[in-house]
Every structure is written in C-alpha cells, then in structure tokens.
Amino acid sequence: MFNGAMPAASPLRAPDGYWRLGDRDGTGLSLLIEKRSVGVNMLLAVALLLASVAYLSLGTTALDPRAVIQALAGQGDMMTVFMVQELRLPRLVAGCLTGGAFALAGILMQTLARNRLATPGIIGIDNGATAFAVASVVGMGVSLAPSAMALTGAVTAAVLTFGLATGSGTQGYRFIIAGIGVGAVFGAVTQLMLARVGIDTANAAYPWTVGSLNARSGGSVQLLGIGLAVGFVLAFGLARSLTILRFSEATARGLGVSVNARRFQILMLSVVLTALAVAVAGPVGMVGLIGPEIARALSTPRHVPVLAATLSGALVMVLADLLGRTMMAPIELPVGIITAIVGGPWLLWILMRPQRSRP
C-alpha cells in the first residue's frame, strides 16, 4: 500500500576507472576524477623531484644529496649553499618552467591541429621568436627587450603560418608545410643577421639560436613563471573543449563548443607560452614533441593530458640540461643540442608509426 513516502535515491556509482567526489545521489554537484590520471601525474611529479635532486647534486663539483637538501634550507657549508642556491637552483627553475611551457604549448597545438607533428617548433613559431629576439640582441634597429621581441616574433610567425594555410585552417598537412616554410625563412633571417655583426656580438646571440639555459634572464624567468601559471589555469579550463576538438568540427559544434573562438584562444595561448619560453632559453627543439608523447603514452585517450604533458616537458628539459652539463664536463653542451639528438629519432618513429596514437 502506497503511504506517500518517496523511495530513497540510490547512490550513483562512479564509472569504472573514476572516483566520484561530492554528492553521490545525483541531486547536487559531483566531480569525477580519473584514477589513472592521478597515478600518472603523481609518478611524473616524483620523477621530476628525483631528477631535480640529481640536477642540484651533479656537476663539475658533485654534492651529496643530503647536503643539497640542507643547502636548500640555507644550512650547511656556505660554499655548498652558494652553489645550490645561486648557481644551480635558478637554472633548475628555468629548466622546469621552459620545459613545461614548451610541452604545454605543444600539446595545445597538436590538439588544435589534430596532428602529432604540429608543435610550435616544427610550424615555425620557435624560429619566429628566435629571429626577433636575436634582432634585439644584435641591435638591428630595435631596442625592445628580447622577451618582448620574442613574443612579437612568435605572433608574427603564427599569423603568417595561419594565413598561408588559408583553406585548411589549422587542420591537415598544409598547415604543417606552411609552418615549416615560415620557420625556414625566419631561420635564414637569423643566420643573415648573425653573419653581418662582429664575432663578439654573434657569440652573445649564439645561445638564442641553439637553445641554452646559460642565457637566462632573471626578469624573463619570472615573467615565464607567471605566464606558465596563468596559461596552465586557462588550459585546464579549456580541457573539455580540447577533448571535444579532437573530433570533427561538426561534432564539436553539436556538443556546444564555439569552435572558432576556442581555436583562436588555444592558438594565442600556445604562441604566448612559446614566446615566453624562447625568451628564457632560446628555441629548445623537440621538447614540445617529446613531452606530449610521453604524457599520451602514460595516460588514457579519454582526455587531453594537460598536466601530464607539462610535467613531462619539465622532466625532459631538466634531464637534457643535466646530461649537457655532465656528459663532457667541464665542456658544456647546450640543452638544445641534447634535445635535438634525442628528439630526432623520436620524430622518425612518429613518422613511421603515425597510427599508434591520436593528438
């Protein structure tokens, strides 16, 4: 006999592979968290932490990891404190920030173009930023700071690539070919500028052409830190749109995504992140390719792994710079050379097996 009482709502089960946080009966707000994503991000964070300790410990003068930890707190031998806090730690921070920015820009661009090769370096944005930054360093009639010039160059390269790819937008190989052409032109302009200045000026601008953390500027690093923090928050807010944009334009529009607006936002975010990273370290190639590939290999294909890509990029940059500092010590190899050596075979592998994963 019905007594007027409503049956109690049964708790909603979380889908397989997820945790549900918040209201479980379906009457309020709840949040689904993918278990594998949490595990992957924790694994990458621990790996980055261990790599950072190794980075601070190894070098021309090797330090005990326990002494490094004490030095970070300002304790222990004063020479050790100086080496850790004044010499190695600022460079480590620059490496983490630039690697994270390159990889975040890379996965955003790859998702936008639905192509694993569409990284800022390959489509010319790195070279555009580098050409303008070098113009500032060698004094080619400009007086803006390298960071401001790098941003101008990145925007210019992006506009040219997008304009030359008219008809295909950011999709397909026409966009990639246009970017390669734009990058080649800016690369030639950079070499021309270096050939027309004195040897001392060319040496000062050299790190901008290969990618090196030796040329970092304190102000540029701080600006990059702010930009990466803001950029990550914006990218995280665009996570749902990024996932949907991997499908066709008609599908994305049907699911309520403003495709043109989202593409513009993602493109501008990638350009700004790339420009800020180039302003610190120069055009460090392949990090925007390797970082996202590592993140996708570890993560599920349900979502775009924004955080995992950022952590992977930072890890790749730290390990590459550590290898460059120690492999032929006391001679130091620029980090851009190390990433090119590692990233070249990786790029060939992607070209030979493009069907293995999707952006």
From TrEMBL:
Pfam families: FecCD. The keyword Cell membrane applies. This is Iron ABC transporter permease. It comes from the Bacteria. Belongs to the binding-protein-dependent transport system permease family. FecCD subfamily. The chain crosses the membrane at residues 38-58, 89-109, 121-142, 148-168, 175-199, 219-245, 266-291, 303-323, 335-352. It is a multi-pass membrane protein. It is found in: Cell membrane. Keywords: Cell membrane, Membrane, Transmembrane, Transmembrane helix, Transport.
